[in-house]
Each structure stands twice: as structure tokens, then as C-alpha cells.
Amino acid sequence: MSFYGRRILPHLLHFAMRQAQLRPFRQRVVGAAVGKVLEIGLGSGLNLPLYGLNVRSVIGVEPSAELLAMAERQVGRARIPVELLEASAEALPLPSSSIDTAVTTWTLCTIPDAVQALREVRRVLKPGGVLLFVEHGRAPEPSVARWQDRLDRPWSRIAGGCHLNRPIDHLITDAGFRVETLRHERVAGPPTHNFLYQGQARPR
Questions:
Q1: What is the C-alpha to C-alpha distance for residues 51 and 46, in angstroms, rounded to an integer?
Q2: Distance CA 117, CA 172 (A)
Q3: Contact 99, 130 (CB under 8 A)
Q4: How far apart are CA 156 and CA 57, in angstroms?
Q5: Which one of 11, 91, 92, 94 has the fewest beta carbons within 10 angstroms of its own beta carbon?
């Protein structure tokens, strides 16, 4: 990995993702988690202090050693036990049917094979388990979506593999989930970057 990827990008991601306008979305998603939780794409651990006492424990999976080191600082602020794993969501080192709730917040845009990662999440969820998510992705307006397609490659190069144009609901259903609730909102920012998908899904 380049110097930029190791030393600069993790701090840029932490700064961008700790925006105050994103916190209510995090609170809604994380607040609905129960039991044994898997969070994929843990990043710098911004969700860890938000988990409530309905959660028994959290396993945070993150492929970046630099971001995991930043997440370590958040572990002490969590109210429940936390285990950090340096691993890819596309090959989770967890047994099948072992997780009650999976959480993903602004993660599916970055994983190289997001559908495979979601299939892994489906594998490790217990029967009746739930996936809770908030993600940015493809906008419904054709003119905005065309700009997302144009900007996707250069943006991905500078933003650590983040893609602007992924249809999040389709990725989730393609991985074998049934989307039970889905709401769309926009936050402040360019229309190519600010269209959100928030909801929950269960394995079919």
C-alpha cells in the first residue's frame, strides 16, 4: 500500500465520517442492533460508543490495520465487549449462523466485491438475524446518476476505493436478502455523493 493509503487516507476517512450530520443516521442504525453484533467495515470505530445494552458483544471487522489502530481508541468508550478483527468482509473468519445482527454504515461503497461480502454476512447470520444498513449510493435522477458514472473512477482512486454509483438495495437483494424497510434521504453535499439508503434486511 502507498504512503497515501497508509498514512493520509485513514485520517481523511476518519475526519469525513465523523461529521455531525451523519451521527443521527448512525444512532438509528446502531440503536436497533441486538444480541451478538457483527460490524463490517468498522473503520475508525465511530459506531462503538453508540451500541446500547441490548447488544451482548460486537465483533468489528476491518481490513485496514491503520483504521483498526484508530478503532482501538474507541473500544474503551464502548459499553459492551468488543473484539476487533483485521480481515476482509469477503471472507469472514466466523462460523456460520453465529451472529444476531450485522451492521454496515458507509461501507458497501468501498468493498471490492460487495455482493460476496453480503453473502458472507448472510452466512454468519443466525436464522431470523437482521442486517442493518446506512449507505450512500446511486441516485434516482438520471442526470445525477450519469455524473456518478463519470466521476466514479477518479473518485475511487482518491477515496480509498469508494464508489459513487452502487445501487445498494440491488446489491443486498442479489446477495440473498429480502429488504424489509428502506428509506432514502439526502445530506448536505454534492448530489453525486449525498443520496442515502437506510433500512434493514433479512436472509431469504
A1: 10
A2: 10
A3: no
A4: 33
A5: 91
